[in-house]
Amino acid sequence: MEKKRFYLEEQTGAAFYRDAESNTYTLTFQTAEIKLSNSLEAELLKQQDPLLERTIAEAEDELVITVHPQETMQPFSKFRKKGDYAKQIIGHSLIRAVAEHHSSRLHLIVCPENLLVTEGLDVHFIHYGIKESLPPYEKNEEKLFTELKTTLLVLLDGEYRFVEYMNFTDTMKLSARAKKLLEADTIEALLSCVETWIQEEERRASQMHMVPKQKWRLQKSLFFAVTGLLIPAIVFTVYALFFLHPRHDAFIASNEAYINSKPSDVITALEPYNPSQMPRVVQYQLAQSYVANEDLNMDQTANVQNTLTLQAEELYFQYWIAIGRGEHEEANEIARQLQDGELEMYANLKWRDAIRQDLSLSGDEREELLNDIQADIDRYMREQQEREAEEEEDAAADDNATEEEPEQSEERSEDGEENEQEDEPEQNEEEENADE
């Protein structure tokens, strides 16, 4: 696969190479392709920039120019990841360098690979064209201005590559800053744009407090640590403020209502809360309040009160709370856990009445639910009848056993008298024999 050529190579015809180890830049020209007639003509380059050491060597068919910059100078591409302020200063330096270049013999070529930047963010050029000797041979102001704008786009916008900015700006999606640069039609307009951005960045920086990176990292770590500790505390405070306190107040109000024999007020105070959120005593009071509102006869009320004591299992409390709140299916499940058929039967009867009055159900849904509930009711009635039949059989068996016991006692008494009468003659005979 053919290696893509740099813009500098395309414009000069030279092979451009950077040796990172030796920190040198080499341009190799084919002597047959350039106008240079004598290598002495290239000596003009050595005098152009004191910060760049240039050596010029000529072989049979090549002219090799080697540039050795100072160690502190960096390639232009290294600064694309710097902060906005540093890049704006470099852009300003580049514009000034182009604007202040007035040599008639040395011609500029502006592209990222041809630029070096000092520690002070000044811009220097690796290669210059020499009139009638090295390309570019002629000074083209329009082309130079396009190269300058494109290089500034790479530096200050950085969304695309140099070649893309050069050729495809009409079809690319550009930022506001990139559009501003493209709208500039003079070097002075470019300089004004960049100076405006520098001033904005300086105003922004003046409003910020700069700290050493190590100190910033420490502060950031402390911030996250403190935040990690505060968040649980804040969450608990909010939870306590909006949930625990109102719930605690509701428990107190319901207790006062229960003491004052106001079951309706107990129910109202505890309506928003699930039984699992209530202490045992509160569940007991709420269950008793719902029972008080149930339509039960005296015998039923007495039976319920016998099982619904403070020592009873919490499931009994939850059952009557579910009944009172109209959660009949839940009450049915609790009754099954308790294995209490009477409670299950009562829940089914309440559930059946509620479904009959539920207008939100369709006819098919209502019929299906009623059939299921009726099946449970019928099953319970059959089991109840079977238990009653067994109890009657057991009672009859007990009565028969009781009647048979006196008859067996009389038979045992008669047998005893006969045995005594048989024993008396034997005893008399023994006495007579003894007298003889």
UniProtKB/TrEMBL annotation:
InterPro entries the UniProt entry points to: T7SS_EssB, T7SS_EssB_C
Biased composition (Acidic residues): 388-436
Superkingdom, taxonomy of origin: Bacteria
KW Disulfide bond (keyword) present: no
Keywords: Membrane, Transmembrane, Transmembrane helix
Transmembrane segments: 222-244
Span list, region Disordered: 381-436
Family: Belongs to the EssB family.
Protein name (record): Type VII secretion protein EssB
Gene: essB
